[in-house]
């Protein structure tokens, strides 16, 4: 599904190298987790994959289902099936959540040469998805993320994911700022989307999210590289011993 | 006073050969008095403080700058779906063929040309009156010029709640038409009227509308200024508000090389409400000026100014907005916001918000901002699959929404929103 090969990234504005040769291969239906200390390059990885400005890829390739995505605009990556759940979802005053979602769903369909969804079908679709995420009608009407609590914002991210039905989902610290109940709700939303044709890359500091979203593979990232890869037990090791042991071990 | 002499000479030169329209004793008297006002003030120049941000020369010149007439089939006319009484002017001349029958229960509509000959006491007292009041403390010579020389326009007397809006449609026929229109409207106590205005009108358009809103009456005004990119316009909307009356005006502007819209309101009755709003969308050779002056001269009145402009490719936006609270106008609630969204570094927004308050128990606030498109929001939308242009349009509409929300009538608001979307889509090309 997603192949990252020897990815080197520096900041566009300054001479600071962030990723120093990241390689990762996520198969269809797999859930991978990236853990790592602050500043290791986890979030940069998600931004570079989604096409945010400000980063320069100096070396390496990224393909989604064999397609080179690094040359694509963010909206083209989205239409190709990539989705990033933001660590800090953006507030957009004046744009209704529903309008936003319908525009996004139909823009992607159009880009893929599919027929746009009718207003009635869309309404049915979103109501069903919103219900399972405990998102009420009021939240759908309000401007995108404006006045939403931390939990509401993250649930709204998962709602977007459910509506857009991407193939490759990247969750950037989706657990940050969530209490246990909210985290469970979000995890349930994610688990409901698990499918043999859909892959996930879960970026997190803590193991606790991985109790709810069970990964197949866990990667430890440090200083812009994947330093260790293993099974779910690797996350538990981090939980018990912190990153220091692992980092010392690979140093 | 060399400056003053220069101005006087220029005004004299400009008015040479211009003669006051014929007809009607009271109208002639009002015109003569307006001409005297104009001669006394002189036409505006760049040196005038009130014209610091907008060059008046093409509005005052003897020669009319040409403006091409665009194909009327270019886009469907705005307000087409609204049930209304249509009154059409072509290059400032009433077109009876294209207009509806000027009859509606509780509303009497006459043409200035005819009314001037008959003895309509209310119009006599109003024509040029609110314009005269509006000349202090700031001079508005182009409005006086209009009172003096306008040959056509409507005299509208409203005694009940009008069943349908009156829709004034200003068609543009000739490349060098120079048009002055003057409307006078009186909304009697408890009566209600909505006036819609649209169309480019002329190559150069000078329009005055004087509106007396009596006690407990309501006046709604919605205007769309689109099409015919080269046209120039200066408009004055004078209003006087009685007790517990409502005055609401909204303008959407999307074209025009030069537009100056002045709104001058006197709130003389207690508990009245005045809302003035505008949304402008400027691209390239576009200069748009909203100049607003609201005087609170009564207790417990509310006024609100909401102006938004989206500018790109070197377009210029101007906002001069003032709230004057006179001594004794206690419990005044005044609000003013002007904001510009600059889509590139070539465009500019010039704002002069002013408050002048002589009462001690009032709540007045004003704010003005200039900003670029929110890159974070843009990326968020794109990351969800919305293409750049569409994402930008969505953010532009969101920005303008606060102003458009000021339109009370939902049908009209939707009509203008649809128009706005059409313009945005066309401009993507």
TrEMBL record, chain A:
It comes from the Bacteria. The keyword Nucleotide-binding applies. Transmembrane segments: none annotated. Keywords: ATP-binding, Nucleotide-binding. SMART domains: AAA (SM00382). Residues 2-248 form the ABC transporter domain. Belongs to the ABC transporter superfamily. Ycf16 family. This is Fe-S cluster assembly ATPase SufC.
UniProtKB/TrEMBL annotation, chain B:
Signal peptide: none annotated. InterPro entries: Fe-S_cluster_assembly_SufBD, SUF_FeS_clus_asmbl_SufBD_core, SUF_FeS_clus_asmbl_SufBD_sf, SUF_FeS_clus_asmbl_SufD, SufBD_N. Coiled coil: none annotated. It comes from the Bacteria. Residues 177-399 form the SUF system FeS cluster assembly SufBD core domain. SUPFAM superfamilies: Stabilizer of iron transporter SufD. Residues 29-162 form the SUF system FeS cluster assembly SufBD N-terminal domain. Belongs to the iron-sulfur cluster assembly SufBD family. NCBIfam families: sufD. This is Fe-S cluster assembly protein SufD. It comes from Pseudohalocynthiibacter aestuariivivens. The gene is sufD.
């Amino acid at each position: 599904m997603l192949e990252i090969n020897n990815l080197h990234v520096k900041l566009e504005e300054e001479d600071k190298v962030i990723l120093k040769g990241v390689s990762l291969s996520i198969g269809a239906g797999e859930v991978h987790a990236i853990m790592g200390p602050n500043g290791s390059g986890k979030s940069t990885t998600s931004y570079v994959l989604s096409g945010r400005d400000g980063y320069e890829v100096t070396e390496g390739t990224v393909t989604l289902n064999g397609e080179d995505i690094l040359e694509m605009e963010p909206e083209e990556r989205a239409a190709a099936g990539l989705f990033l759940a933001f660590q800090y979802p953006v507030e957009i005053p004046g744009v209704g959540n529903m309008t936003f979602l319908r525009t996004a769903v139909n823009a992607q369909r159009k880009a893929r040469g599919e027929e746009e969804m009718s207003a009635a079908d869309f309404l049915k679709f979103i109501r069903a998805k919103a219900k399972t995420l405990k998102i009420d009608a009021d939240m759908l009407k309000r401007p995108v993320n404006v006045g939403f609590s931390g939990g509401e914002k993250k649930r709204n991210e998962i709602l977007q994911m459910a509506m857009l039905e991407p193939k490759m989902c990247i969750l950037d610290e989706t657990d940050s700022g969530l209490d246990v109940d909210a985290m469970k709700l979000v995890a349930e939303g994610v688990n409901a989307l698990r499918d043999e044709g859909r892959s996930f890359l879960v970026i997190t500091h803590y193991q606790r999210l991985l109790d709810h979203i069970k990964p197949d593979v866990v990667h430890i990232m440090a200083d812009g590289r994947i330093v260790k890869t293993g099974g779910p037990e690797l996350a538990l090791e981090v939980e018990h011993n912190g990153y220091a042991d692992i980092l010392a071990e690979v140093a | 006073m060399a400056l003053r002499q220069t101005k006087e000479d220029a005004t004299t030169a400009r008015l040479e050969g211009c003669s006051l329209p014929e007809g009607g004793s009271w109208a002639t008297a009002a015109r003569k008095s307006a001409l005297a006002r104009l001669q006394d003030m002189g036409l505006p120049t760049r040196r005038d403080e009130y014209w610091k941000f907008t060059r008046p020369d093409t509005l005052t010149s003897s020669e009319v700058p040409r403006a091409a007439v665009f194909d009327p089939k270019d886009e469907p006319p705005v307000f087409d779906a609204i049930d209304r009484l249509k009154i059409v002017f072509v290059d400032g001349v009433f077109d009876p063929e294209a207009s509806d029958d000027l009859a509606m229960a509780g509303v009497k509509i006459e043409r200035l040309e005819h009314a001037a000959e008959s003895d309509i006491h209310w119009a006599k007292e109003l024509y040029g009156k609110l314009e005269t009041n509006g000349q202090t403390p700031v001079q508005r010579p182009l409005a006086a010029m209009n009172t003096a020389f306008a040959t056509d326009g409507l005299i509208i007397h409203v005694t009940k709640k009008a069943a349908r809006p009156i829709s004034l449609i200003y068609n543009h026929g000739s490349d060098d038409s120079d048009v002055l229109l003057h409307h006078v409207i009186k909304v009697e106590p408890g009566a209600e009227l909505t006036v819609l205005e649209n169309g480019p009108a002329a190559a150069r358009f000078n329009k005055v509308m004087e509106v007396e809103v009596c006690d407990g009456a309501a006046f709604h005004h919605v205007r769309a200024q689109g099409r015919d990119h080269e046209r120039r316009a200066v408009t004055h909307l004078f209003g006087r508000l009685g007790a517990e009356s409502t005055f609401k005006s909204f303008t959407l502007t999307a074209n025009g090389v030069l537009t100056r819209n002045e709104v001058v309101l006197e709130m003389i009755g207690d508990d009245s409400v005045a809302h003035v709003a505008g949304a402008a969308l400027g691209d390239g050779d576009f200069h748009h000026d909203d100049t607003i002056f609201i005087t609170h001269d009564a207790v417990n009145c509310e006024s609100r100014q909401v102006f938004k402009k989206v500018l790109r490719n070197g377009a210029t936006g101007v906002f001069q907005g003032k709230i004057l609270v006179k001594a004794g106008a206690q419990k005044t609630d005044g609000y003013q916001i002007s904001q510009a969204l600059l889509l590139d570094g070539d465009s500019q927004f010039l704002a002069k918000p002013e408050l002048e308050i002589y009462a001690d128990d009032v709540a007045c606030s004003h704010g003005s901002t200039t900003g670029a498109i929110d890159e974070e929001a843009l990326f968020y939308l794109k990351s969800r699959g919305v293409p750049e242009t569409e994402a930008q349009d969505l953010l532009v509409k969101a920005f303008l929404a606060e102003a458009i929300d000021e339109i009370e009538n939902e049908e009209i608001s939707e009509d203008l929103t649809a128009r706005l979307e059409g313009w945005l889509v066309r401009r993507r090309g």
